[in-house]
Design brief:
Alpha-Beta Plaits
């Protein structure tokens, strides 16, 4: 399973507030099949098979254009572990266990 951290930034929107765009991105993700996602204060974490993750990233990259943005900057970081099952939750548990 792949885990991706994605930040989508519409540029030139006329406002410094991005929350309406972020809310729309979450609506788009709700419609994507085969993934799980978590909104954080700085990005969105998307988990699932790599093809499904890429499809979701493409959909949320396109979303601000549909809302009138003329330019979009998307940053993506992917952790694709294939030697054993992985998830954001598992990664956090592993670190927390080492802190005890």
């Amino acid at each position: 399973m792949a885990i991706a951290e994605v930040t989508v930034i519409p540029i030139g929107t006329g406002s410094t507030s991005l929350s309406p765009y972020v809310a729309e991105l979450q609506r788009v993700l709700e419609k994507q099949e085969g993934i799980q996602y978590t909104l954080t204060s700085m990005s969105t974490i998307i988990e699932g098979p790599l093809d499904s993750v890429f499809a979701a990233i493409r959909a949320i990259h396109e979303s601000p254009f549909q809302s009138g943005a003329q330019r979009v900057s998307t940053s993506i970081k992917i952790d694709d572990r294939r030697d054993k099952a992985s998830s954001s939750e598992q990664k956090l548990r592993s670190v927390q266990a080492k802190l005890q």
